[in-house]
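INTERNAL TRANSFER SHEET
From: sequence group
To: structure group
Subject: L-aspartate oxidase

Please process the attached sequence and return the structure record in the designated field. Keep the field labels unchanged so the import script can parse them.
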Amino acid sequence: MIPRYLVDFDLDQLPHVYTDVIVIGAGIAGLFTALKASETSKVLMITKKSLLDSNTRYAQGGIAAVISDEDAPEYHIQDTLIAGAGLCDKNAVDVLVHEGPDGVKELIRMGTQFDLENGEFALTKEGAHSQRRILHAHGDATGAEIVRALSEKTKQDPGITLWDDHFVIDLITEDGVCCGALVQKPDGSKVFVHGKATILCSGGAGQLFRYTTNPDIATGDGIAIAYRAGADIRDMEFIQFHPTALCYPGAPRFLISEAVRGEGAVLRNIHGERFMERYHEQMELAPRDVVARAIVQEMEDTKSTFVYIDFTHETEEIVKHRFPTIYEECLKYGLDLASDWIPVAPAAHYIMGGVRTDLYGETSVKRLFACGEVSSTGVHGANRLASNSLSEAIVFGRRIVERINGLDPLSTVPSVRETGHRKEGSIQPVIEKRLKLQKVMLRYAGLVRNAKGLAKGYEELRRQLPIYETGLSKREEYEFANLLTCSLLTTEAALRRTESRGGHSREDYPQKNDDIWQKHTLFNRETGITEEMIHHA
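Return from structure group:
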């Protein structure tokens, strides 16, 4: 059993820090929400590394919003619902699409500079979008530009206090209400941060897998701490593998953006054959899950560890202008995007599930909110539409602040103690445990799954449960405990869902089964695993 708290503590013995709003995490969700909240409240922003470390920084493609006269909200809604494979909450998609354009305008007001062409926004198209509606910055460095603009603004904001290198161990709750967080400072001491609202903006969980486009910090902390605090966790089986991450000795799994295929790049197997026409009529621009599984199938058929992406039909000038970051990154490894076929393979990229929220970002625990990849708002369903994630963070960030502005301060200070008499003594080096977990997940809960493998993976992961009884004290130990929680939820949900849909694919149940499975998987620490019917508007 996963315990309520990871460590022993007594709040009465710890220093207390008071603020109005606690923001955990520093990607686009954290930065944007902190800036909005600071207009009316005192904000404390806690990040486990620094302002510039987040998944957002690596987002290349851009941000989806209906801006062009040729586009319409109805098209964006339809594209999102089709990608989500029957599991989107239509109300949430409605909110995203209709409030997205205003969110983009707000980003521009906050200093984000999107690319222009002849004085208009340069819009591109990505997989499964029917229209050009992706705004981008510096060609393919959209996330980095947004983080640059927002973090500069955050540093100058007198209403925001920043704590870098601090780790949130757990959320403190009393009678189903979140009152703040237990935080470990860089020197190892602990402090209780008390606030009227706590917002999780802690990002995704790509580190569940051996190969991921996510940075090292994406360890699912927010999902795990929310689960321990009693929040509902939804749809953990749906994990998006990006079809095209650089696969080259010595190189990280760097993202070769979907926009490269949007601009006409084709996929070839190691024999040089273009293969996507055998899998889907939209070819290279089919939904991500389709493309990723097609690549895996080709790799198996050709006994190879990669396929190629071929963008050599474009001039060097266009390639450098449109994808400068990708071009530069490939060059570091002696690969020229303009003249070479680039070796790629799928890598874990985005988790569609997360902490379940309402349309104002509030979780099932009062005063606890979730925004960005950590959340499950209902927008993404079983498979996220490209470039909807950045817009989601902004749209729901604004709504969270609206809801928070109506909250009264907490009247009492909780007095919580946790004494689990945990065993002292070091655990096997965490780095080994983490690698083993990642290999188990890749092997049994990766792109293609089956009952036998998932059951075996689940049992192997369960053997690590005794870690919760030991005295954890370091950041990497907490991260491993959080990864273990997320991996158990993911494998259990995947085992239970006997169908294939979106980012969840079962060899033993290759078809989608709407009669039984058009519903969400829901985890709660108190009530266990249940199912939730789809909310149709």
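Handover comment: The chain has a mean pLDDT of 94. The chain is about 30% helix and 20% strand.
Transfer complete.
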